[in-house]
Amino acid sequence: MLGIHHQSNVQLLKNLSYFGSERHGYMVPDHFLGSHSICYCVGAGEDISFDTELKMAFDAKVYIFDPSPYGINHFNQVKDYVNHGIPLTLDKTLAPYVYNISSKQFSEIKFVPVGLWDEKKTLRFYDPERENYSSHSAILFTESKNFIEAPVDRLSNLMTELGHQHIDLLKIEIEGAEYKVIDTIIEDKLNVKAILVEFDEIYNTKDKSFHFRIKRSCNKLRKAGYVLAHSTVAMKRLFIRKDIYDQLKKLEINA
């Protein structure tokens, strides 16, 4: 009724491959990324399996963004294990995942301790009031008495600072701030070819209107020229700019 069924408006690409751990992985189009591709992975938390596999599979130029202590500490922990040749396993009981990236590959990943927002500022990120949940949020959990303050910036500013005119793949897993960031992408008419986004309110509902917020944000992307090419029940969605989508679709037909 709300048009938010996870398969609504999906124009599925057949040639997709899964990267990352069971809980934090995503589908990526085949024949899309390569060694010259620029990938922004926003929101590290305590799992950068997807981000590291982009480097391993494609030798892509990977940038990880996260201003939180959890994200910074986990990145440094992975780096320490990798540099010492020690396997680090995530989620040992339910869905074990082992980082297999080499120290050389990991050294080529750039970590940026800044979050995404619609302006450059210092922002409050509230602690989750759930056990064993490491992600802070500027939007959700605002009733929590505990918070951290961390730097954020607009995506267009960060692209300028890093010297990038375009992004091939943007992953945003940012606990409710995705609506605001999607708005800036559209407003600034940024050259972003594909967007992977997790709509976190499926699990951490702010209020009863979350269905409308998700639907509205997805409609904005579609109106801006993106095709919804894949979606999971958990609302982890792949949007591809139509010109790129059409190229990938032709490869399916000619295969």
TrEMBL record:
Organism domain of life: Bacteria
SUPFAM superfamilies: S-adenosyl-L-methionine-dependent methyltransferases
Pfam families per record: Methyltransf_21
Residue ranges of the TM segments: none
Domain annotation Methyltransferase FkbM: ranges: 60-227
NCBIfam families: fkbM_fam
The protein, known as: Methyltransferase FkbM domain-containing protein
Phylogenetic lineage: Bacteria, Pseudomonadati, Bacteroidota, Sphingobacteriia, Sphingobacteriales
